[in-house]
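Need the bound structure for adenosine-5'-triphosphate, inputs here:
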Amino acid sequence: PSYITHDQRLLRLRGGDRESTFAMLKPDVASDTHTVDEIKQRIAEAGLSIERERVCRLSRRRCGKFYAEHRTRPFYPALLGFMSSGPVVMLELSGESAIGAWRSLIGPTSTETARKEAPRSLRAMYGSDNTRNAAHGSDSPASAAREIRLMFQKPAWRRLEVYAGLAAAFLLTKRE
Ligand code: ATP
Ligand code: MG
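Answer from helper R.:
Posting the output first, comments after.
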Protein backbone atom coordinates (compact mmCIF):
# COMPACT_ATOMS: atom_id res chain seq x y z
CA PRO A 1 0.00 0.00 0.00
CA SER A 2 1.17 3.54 -0.65
CA TYR A 3 1.02 5.98 2.21
CA ILE A 4 -0.77 9.24 1.61
CA THR A 5 -1.24 12.18 3.93
CA HIS A 6 -4.50 13.05 5.60
CA ASP A 7 -4.86 16.08 3.27
CA GLN A 8 -4.31 13.93 0.20
CA ARG A 9 -6.90 11.44 1.42
CA LEU A 10 -9.43 14.24 1.93
CA LEU A 11 -8.66 15.56 -1.55
CA ARG A 12 -9.30 12.12 -3.08
CA LEU A 13 -12.54 11.73 -1.17
CA ARG A 14 -13.67 15.04 -2.58
CA GLY A 15 -12.93 13.77 -6.10
CA GLY A 16 -9.34 14.96 -6.61
CA ASP A 17 -8.27 18.49 -7.48
CA ARG A 18 -10.35 18.60 -10.62
CA GLU A 19 -10.45 22.11 -12.04
CA SER A 20 -11.91 23.95 -14.97
CA THR A 21 -10.03 26.44 -17.06
CA PHE A 22 -10.71 28.67 -20.00
CA ALA A 23 -8.54 28.13 -23.07
CA MET A 24 -8.58 30.08 -26.27
CA LEU A 25 -6.85 29.44 -29.58
CA LYS A 26 -6.13 32.90 -30.92
CA PRO A 27 -6.75 34.21 -34.47
CA ASP A 28 -3.20 33.33 -35.62
CA VAL A 29 -3.99 29.58 -35.32
CA ALA A 30 -7.77 29.20 -35.00
CA SER A 31 -8.47 29.21 -38.76
CA ASP A 32 -5.97 26.46 -39.47
CA THR A 33 -7.92 23.23 -38.94
CA HIS A 34 -4.78 21.09 -39.06
CA THR A 35 -3.14 23.11 -36.25
CA VAL A 36 -6.38 23.11 -34.23
CA ASP A 37 -6.52 19.30 -34.50
CA GLU A 38 -2.87 18.99 -33.41
CA ILE A 39 -3.56 21.20 -30.39
CA LYS A 40 -6.63 19.14 -29.45
CA GLN A 41 -4.42 16.06 -29.62
CA ARG A 42 -1.97 17.69 -27.15
CA ILE A 43 -4.90 18.59 -24.88
CA ALA A 44 -5.96 14.93 -24.79
CA GLU A 45 -2.39 13.75 -24.17
CA ALA A 46 -2.18 16.12 -21.19
CA GLY A 47 -5.18 14.34 -19.66
CA LEU A 48 -7.50 17.30 -20.09
CA SER A 49 -11.00 17.03 -21.46
CA ILE A 50 -12.92 19.50 -23.57
CA GLU A 51 -16.23 20.28 -21.83
CA ARG A 52 -17.45 23.03 -24.15
CA GLU A 53 -16.27 24.51 -27.41
CA ARG A 54 -17.29 27.63 -29.23
CA VAL A 55 -15.89 29.11 -32.41
CA CYS A 56 -16.60 32.75 -33.09
CA ARG A 57 -15.17 36.09 -34.04
CA LEU A 58 -14.88 38.41 -31.05
CA SER A 59 -15.87 42.05 -31.22
CA ARG A 60 -13.29 44.64 -30.13
CA ARG A 61 -15.62 45.43 -27.26
CA ARG A 62 -15.66 41.89 -25.93
CA CYS A 63 -11.88 41.62 -26.29
CA GLY A 64 -11.65 44.84 -24.27
CA LYS A 65 -13.71 43.30 -21.47
CA PHE A 66 -11.72 40.09 -21.63
CA TYR A 67 -8.34 41.86 -21.36
CA ALA A 68 -9.54 44.73 -19.11
CA GLU A 69 -6.62 44.17 -16.69
CA HIS A 70 -4.20 45.19 -19.47
CA ARG A 71 -5.97 48.39 -20.60
CA THR A 72 -3.12 50.70 -19.53
CA ARG A 73 -0.36 48.61 -21.15
CA PRO A 74 1.32 49.89 -24.33
CA PHE A 75 0.49 46.69 -26.23
CA TYR A 76 -3.26 46.88 -25.44
CA PRO A 77 -4.48 48.47 -28.73
CA ALA A 78 -2.47 45.98 -30.80
CA LEU A 79 -3.75 43.14 -28.62
CA LEU A 80 -7.41 44.12 -29.21
CA GLY A 81 -6.77 44.57 -32.93
CA PHE A 82 -5.21 41.11 -33.13
CA MET A 83 -7.78 39.32 -30.97
CA SER A 84 -10.70 40.71 -32.99
CA SER A 85 -9.03 40.14 -36.38
CA GLY A 86 -10.45 36.67 -37.06
CA PRO A 87 -12.16 33.62 -35.55
CA VAL A 88 -11.02 32.15 -32.23
CA VAL A 89 -11.65 28.71 -30.76
CA MET A 90 -12.81 28.92 -27.14
CA LEU A 91 -12.64 25.86 -24.92
CA GLU A 92 -13.63 25.00 -21.41
CA LEU A 93 -11.15 22.39 -20.24
CA SER A 94 -11.37 20.23 -17.17
CA GLY A 95 -9.01 17.87 -15.45
CA GLU A 96 -6.63 17.53 -12.56
CA SER A 97 -4.94 20.90 -11.95
CA ALA A 98 -6.29 21.99 -15.33
CA ILE A 99 -5.27 25.64 -14.92
CA GLY A 100 -1.57 24.88 -14.41
CA ALA A 101 -1.58 21.95 -16.82
CA TRP A 102 -2.91 24.08 -19.69
CA ARG A 103 -0.61 27.03 -18.84
CA SER A 104 2.40 24.75 -18.95
CA LEU A 105 1.24 23.23 -22.23
CA ILE A 106 1.00 26.69 -23.85
CA GLY A 107 4.35 27.89 -22.43
CA PRO A 108 5.76 31.37 -21.75
CA THR A 109 3.99 34.48 -23.13
CA SER A 110 6.78 35.48 -25.49
CA THR A 111 7.30 33.18 -28.47
CA GLU A 112 11.04 33.76 -28.36
CA THR A 113 11.28 32.79 -24.67
CA ALA A 114 9.02 29.81 -25.33
CA ARG A 115 11.32 28.57 -28.12
CA LYS A 116 14.31 28.79 -25.78
CA GLU A 117 12.75 27.47 -22.57
CA ALA A 118 9.91 25.20 -23.66
CA PRO A 119 10.44 24.13 -27.30
CA ARG A 120 7.57 21.60 -27.19
CA SER A 121 5.10 24.22 -25.90
CA LEU A 122 2.26 25.43 -28.14
CA ARG A 123 3.58 28.99 -28.16
CA ALA A 124 7.05 27.80 -29.21
CA MET A 125 5.57 25.66 -31.98
CA TYR A 126 2.82 27.93 -33.29
CA GLY A 127 3.40 31.47 -32.00
CA SER A 128 5.10 34.24 -33.95
CA ASP A 129 5.83 37.09 -31.50
CA ASN A 130 4.84 38.61 -28.12
CA THR A 131 1.25 39.32 -29.19
CA ARG A 132 0.53 36.62 -31.78
CA ASN A 133 1.24 33.77 -29.42
CA ALA A 134 -1.30 31.11 -30.44
CA ALA A 135 -3.16 30.51 -27.20
CA HIS A 136 -4.59 31.90 -23.99
CA GLY A 137 -5.03 30.23 -20.61
CA SER A 138 -6.65 31.48 -17.39
CA ASP A 139 -4.14 32.23 -14.64
CA SER A 140 -6.26 31.43 -11.52
CA PRO A 141 -9.54 29.80 -10.48
CA ALA A 142 -11.12 33.27 -10.19
CA SER A 143 -10.12 34.33 -13.70
CA ALA A 144 -11.15 30.92 -15.09
CA ALA A 145 -14.65 31.42 -13.63
CA ARG A 146 -14.85 35.01 -14.93
CA GLU A 147 -13.62 34.11 -18.42
CA ILE A 148 -15.90 31.06 -18.76
CA ARG A 149 -18.87 33.21 -17.75
CA LEU A 150 -17.89 36.06 -20.08
CA MET A 151 -17.34 33.81 -23.09
CA PHE A 152 -19.93 31.05 -22.70
CA GLN A 153 -22.90 32.70 -21.05
CA LYS A 154 -25.64 33.72 -23.44
CA PRO A 155 -26.16 37.48 -23.50
CA ALA A 156 -29.24 38.73 -21.61
CA TRP A 157 -31.22 39.36 -24.81
CA ARG A 158 -30.62 35.76 -25.93
CA ARG A 159 -31.97 34.47 -22.62
CA LEU A 160 -35.01 36.77 -22.99
CA GLU A 161 -35.53 35.33 -26.45
CA VAL A 162 -35.80 31.85 -24.96
CA TYR A 163 -38.47 33.01 -22.49
CA ALA A 164 -40.29 34.87 -25.28
CA GLY A 165 -40.24 31.68 -27.36
CA LEU A 166 -41.69 29.62 -24.50
CA ALA A 167 -44.41 32.21 -23.83
CA ALA A 168 -45.32 32.34 -27.54
CA ALA A 169 -45.49 28.54 -27.74
CA PHE A 170 -47.77 28.52 -24.68
CA LEU A 171 -50.07 31.21 -26.07
CA LEU A 172 -50.25 29.65 -29.52
CA THR A 173 -51.06 26.18 -28.25
CA LYS A 174 -54.75 25.51 -28.77
CA ARG A 175 -56.44 24.36 -25.61
CA GLU A 176 -59.71 22.45 -25.60
P1 ATP B 1 -2.88 35.11 -21.88
O1 ATP B 1 -3.55 35.99 -20.85
O2 ATP B 1 -3.29 35.45 -23.31
O3 ATP B 1 -3.01 33.65 -21.57
P2 ATP B 1 -0.38 35.51 -20.56
O4 ATP B 1 -1.17 35.34 -19.32
O5 ATP B 1 0.79 34.63 -20.81
O6 ATP B 1 -1.31 35.39 -21.84
P3 ATP B 1 -0.59 38.34 -20.17
O7 ATP B 1 0.45 39.09 -19.45
O8 ATP B 1 -1.89 38.06 -19.50
O9 ATP B 1 0.10 36.99 -20.72
O10 ATP B 1 -0.85 39.11 -21.55
C1 ATP B 1 -2.03 38.88 -22.30
C2 ATP B 1 -1.66 38.86 -23.78
O11 ATP B 1 -1.20 40.15 -24.18
C3 ATP B 1 -0.51 37.92 -24.15
O12 ATP B 1 -0.90 36.59 -24.35
C4 ATP B 1 -0.02 38.54 -25.44
O13 ATP B 1 -0.89 38.20 -26.53
C5 ATP B 1 -0.16 40.02 -25.14
N1 ATP B 1 1.09 40.56 -24.56
C6 ATP B 1 1.54 40.38 -23.30
N2 ATP B 1 2.71 40.99 -23.09
C7 ATP B 1 3.03 41.59 -24.25
C8 ATP B 1 4.12 42.39 -24.71
N3 ATP B 1 5.13 42.71 -23.89
N4 ATP B 1 4.11 42.83 -25.98
C9 ATP B 1 3.10 42.53 -26.82
N5 ATP B 1 2.02 41.78 -26.47
C10 ATP B 1 1.99 41.31 -25.21
MG1 MG C 1 -3.01 36.44 -18.85
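Comments: The chain has a mean pLDDT of 93. The chain has nine helices and four strands.
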